[in-house]
Structure formats: C-alpha cells, structure tokens
Design goal:
Structural class: alpha/beta
Strand order of the largest sheet: 1-2-3-4-8
Oligomer: single chain
Number of strands: 10
C-alpha cells in the first residue's frame, strides 16, 4: 500500500471509528471575502477569512466560496485563519482544498500601516501548514496572536472507553498528526512541544520558530521553478543585498539598479504565478 493511501485510511479511521477530535468550542467556522486593501487591489488577489471552530462541512463551504466568480483575472490569494481549532479530520480536508486552490495561509491581513491579527490554534495549525506560502506573525503586545499548539484530544465520551482503547486512539491520532507535520517539514522540536502540551494548555510559537516554518512549501517552490522560472537563490540574495544597502544608508529602493532589476524579474514571475493560481481555482469551479 502506498504512503498516500495509508495516510488517507488513517484519517478515515479517526473519522469513522470514534468521536471526532475537538477543541471544546461551539461555533462553526464562517467565511468572509475581502478584495479591498492595497495589496489585494494591486495584486488582484482576494483574501478569504476563516473565523471560528472547524467543524464537519467547513471544507465543502470553503470550496463553495472559491467557486464564487471574481472579476476577470482576479483570484483568491490568502486564507486568513482565525480559529481555536476543532475537528482534526475536517482540518485535513480543509488542507486538501487549500493545496488544490494554491492558497497562501496567514494569521494576519495588512491594513495600510496596520495589520489585522488573528490566532490559529490546535487543528487550525494543520490547515495553516498546507499553504503554498505560510505566513505568520506573533505580537505579544497585542495579546496572543499567531500560531498556537497543543495535543489533540477527543470528545469527552470517548474517554469512557477502556484504558486500552483510549490509549490506542490517542496514540493513533498523535502518530497521524506527526506523520502529516513531518511531510510539511515542521521541525521535530515543534511537534514535540505540541504533544507535550495538554488540551488545556497552548504553546505559542515565537518569532524565531516562525522563521523556520514561514516558508514557501517545497512542492509549490518546485512547481514555480518548473513552470515560472522561479530562482530561489536570486530572490534571497537580492533581498539580503537590498536590506544591507538600506541599513548602510547608501541607496533607496528606486536607486539600487540591481534591486530594480530584481523587481522587474519578480514582477514577471508574479504574473506567471498568479495565472497558475487563477487557473487552478477555475478548475475547481467545473
């Protein structure tokens, strides 16, 4: 049996054999679409905001949102997550929709000079790591925003089973989630911290850890290299050099010829990337 089929069967095991994993909240997720801030208008990429607990049917509702027609040449770019978690099985299904639509995932939305911040906790994290690009910011001064982790758990009725059954179910769930997070290149240290926190505790990912997982997904990067001529090293080197130049006070962004050349290259790349995203979402409407 191949790994993909084995993983799918493991998910069905959790969904069919026992009560769903929960986060203890009572309101299902809602969706809102935004196309009006500066970045959204400039890039013609709308943001979908998911708010609330993840429950059965949320993946189908997200797919319905993506099927809604936008202006010609526009597409959905970001899934903005504001959720305490919920049904792990449904989170995996949401992750599949995110990948199919080539959505970026984020815990904030730029609003001019300000950001609208949100928190993505527990099962929500499983959706966040599925993004083509994964974006997060933790801002302790504004309260607990960003990414929060804790151990998965079941509906309380499940724990009335025998100790052997409870142990088997808990271990099965944790192994499934561990396998999934490893595939998404989440560091082992974070996976361990997730499982060490009880369902009553939250481990908030800090800025240093953010930098280890706020990345372009490997599968998406290779897709862009193959289809759009993306050059990861060129992008990294150009941005590092530009920051160094600004810190030295030598040039502004419009006076650095090398950086202007990079921006022109990046603009051409963006056109290709955006069209691939739009085409993927168009296929979902059929």
């Amino acid at each position: 049996m191949n790994t993909r089929k084995s993983f799918a069967m493991s998910i069905r095991f959790l969904a069919l054999f026992c009560a769903v994993l929960v986060s203890g909240f009572t309101h299902a997720a809602t969706y809102q679409v935004y196309c009006d801030n500066g970045f959204e208008k400039a890039s013609q990429g709308c943001t979908i905001k998911l708010t609330g607990k993840i429950e059965t049917g949320d993946s189908d509702r997200l797919r319905t949102v993506i099927r809604q027609r936008l202006k010609p040449s526009w597409r959905y770019q970001h899934l903005f997550l504001d959720s305490p978690g919920g049904d792990v099985y449904e989170a995996f299904r949401l992750a599949e929709v995110v990948r199919e639509a080539l959505l970026d995932t984020t815990t904030f939305r730029p609003m001019g000079a300000q950001h609208e911040h949100a928190s993505c906790v527990s099962a929500c994290f499983l959706v966040w790591v599925a993004g083509a690009n994964r974006i997060s910011q933790n801002w302790p001064e504004y309260g607990r925003y960003g990414l929060g982790l804790h151990r998965p758990y079941f509906d309380p009725a499940t724990y009335k089973n025998s100790a052997t059954e409870v142990s088997e179910l808990q271990q099965k769930a944790m192994l499934l989630i561990q396998e999934y997070l490893r595939k998404e290149l989440v560091p082992e240290t974070l996976i361990e911290k997730m499982f060490r926190r009880s369902s009553k505790e939250v481990y908030w990912i800090d800025d240093i850890e953010d930098s280890a997982i706020d990345v372009r997904a490997p599968w998406f990067e290779e897709m862009m290299i193959a289809q759009c001529g993306f050059e990861p090293k060129y992008e990294r080197d150009a941005n590092v050099r530009h920051v160094q130049q600004i810190l030295k006070g030598k040039v502004g962004s419009t006076k650095d010829a090398a950086y202007v050349a990079y921006l022109n290259w990046r603009q051409k790349y963006n056109v290709c990337e955006y069209e691939i995203r739009r085409a993927a979402q168009e296929r979902m409407k059929k």
